[in-house]
Amino acid sequence: MSVARLGSMDRRGFLENLGRLSLGAAAAAGFSAGVASSQPAVEKAWEPVSDRKVRVGIVGYGVCQFGAAFGFQDHPNVEIVAVSDLIAERRAGLMQACRCDKSYESLEVLVRDPKIEAVFVATDAPNHAKHCIEVLRHGKHVMTAVPAVWGSIEQAEQLLETVRKTGLKYMMAETSCYRADCHAMRHIYRAGGFGKLVYSEGEYFHFSPTPIPSFNGWRIGAPPLWYPTHSTAYYVGVTGGRFTCVSCGGFDAGLPANKPGANQYNNPYSDEIALFQTSEGGASRMLMCKGVQGVIVETGRVYGQRGWMQDTSYHGLMKDLPDITPPPLPPGMPAGGHGGSHGPLTNEFITAILEDREPLVNVYEALAMTVPGIVAHQSAIKEGQTLAIPQYDRA
Ligand SMILES: NC(=O)c1ccc[n+]([C@@H]2O[C@H](COP(=O)([O-])OP(=O)(O)OC[C@H]3O[C@@H](n4cnc5c(N)ncnc54)[C@H](O)[C@@H]3O)[C@@H](O)[C@H]2O)c1
């Protein structure tokens, strides 16, 4: 797993770093050889499940330019009908990047286009829940950038209710879920190679001495574990299990954005480290840290009754590992950034629509990765008091 070091975090540096993180895709190649030494490394071919094109709208071309980063424009089962960003220059950039000649001035206008049947919401985090609800209420499927909701249990419940009521597809594009290590852990877990997990760890370190730019400044001084999903994916995205309660510690590394009055969240912490109890009876340490000098990495490890795994190596009792090669993509569709996860996430969402099935990170998994971080921050504010985590299971 690549660890990038940044001295300061301006927009350019951040984007360059996203590129470097995507070198995880290169690690993926070495990974399958390392883990599955009993298997020949066979390239799987992508097989279309339909020749239909899903008619997609894309919204959001902010500092990460995420609207165009997930390869919708290169998927053979996608027609991009229209794009949107509130800022005209960004809207034009997104049209060009998606090779699309139609745009709307906002998501709220785009969702009224009857031709569009699915929307990728790549807007600012505080608006994800509101925007996804708006899309669903207009009868369209939705894939959202992380996190599913922003610091609000109420938003989580409204989102869940809307997904249940509409019966449409909802997917959260958590990139860790398709990193080579997490993908392999999930398949080995399902095949019994770990047994129950005794312990797991996930971490998202993103040293940010000055906040990364963001729409209306949502990133400035934000509670670290309101953005938990890159970490929590290393339990929920591996096992499908749940966090039941949490005790969390907060740390103030002295960043200007966390001084009194410096942020809209009244949040003093740059770093949060949470210990969760899991539904399997194990424990899980998940963190998000912005104050640790120079480190930027997203990774995790799992430790079970029958084996354990980190990075590229499975160590355990299972002799014949299941197929853990990365999912195949349509010819010409790049795997993309964040460890080659962007392409597989898009392919999963589109295929779930075509096959009329639940996507990998449906609303239940999305909330199970997101809500525990909100409760963890509450625990940190209460000096580590153990708090129960609401459970959102299929009704
Ligand atoms: N690894 C990952 O999964 C990963 C990495 C980076 C960012 N992200 C997520 O991607 C999302 C986008 O990140 P960013 O840094 O580009 O955000 P940003 O804050 O820089 O930009 C958000 C964009 O959304 C647009 N927008 C907001 N409301 C809109 C509306 N109603 N209609 C049309 N456009 C609207 C804004 O104009 C802005 O350009 C964030 O939610 C972030 O959490 C995920």
Strand order of the largest sheet: 13-12-11-7-10-9-8-14
Total E-strand runs: 14
Rg over CA atoms, rounded to whole Å, is 20 Å
What is the highest CATH level, the class of the domain at 11-38 and 177-316 and 363-388? Alpha Beta
Count, helices? 11
CATH topology heading of the domain at 11-38 and 177-316 and 363-388: Dihydrodipicolinate Reductase, domain 2
Percentage of residues in strands: 15-25%
Name the bound molecules. Answer: nicotinamide-adenine-dinucleotide
From the structure provided, what is the oligomeric state, counting identical versus distinct chains?
single chain
- What is the H/E order? HHEEHEHEHEHEHEHEEEEEEHHHE
What would you note in describing this structure?
This protein has helices at residues 11-21, 24-35, 88-97, 107-110, 128-137, 153-166, 180-190, 229-239, 337-340, 342-355, 363-381, and strands at 54-59, 78-84, 103-104, 118-121, 141-144, 170-172, 197-206, 243-251, 271-278, 283-289, 296-304, 307-310, 313-316, 387-388. With 395 residues, it is α/β, with parallel strands linked by helices. Strands 13-12-11-7-10-9-8-14 form an eight-stranded mixed sheet. It has a domain at 11-38 and 177-316 and 363-388: 2-Layer Sandwich (Dihydrodipicolinate Reductase, domain 2), CATH 3.30.360.10. The radius of gyration is 20 Å and the shape is globular. The model is unreliable at 1-40 (pLDDT under 50). It has eleven helices and 14 strands. The structure holds nicotinamide-adenine-dinucleotide. Nicotinamide-adenine-dinucleotide (NAD) is lined by residues 59-64, 66, 84-87, 90, 106-108, 122-125, 127, 145-146, 175, 214-215, 338.
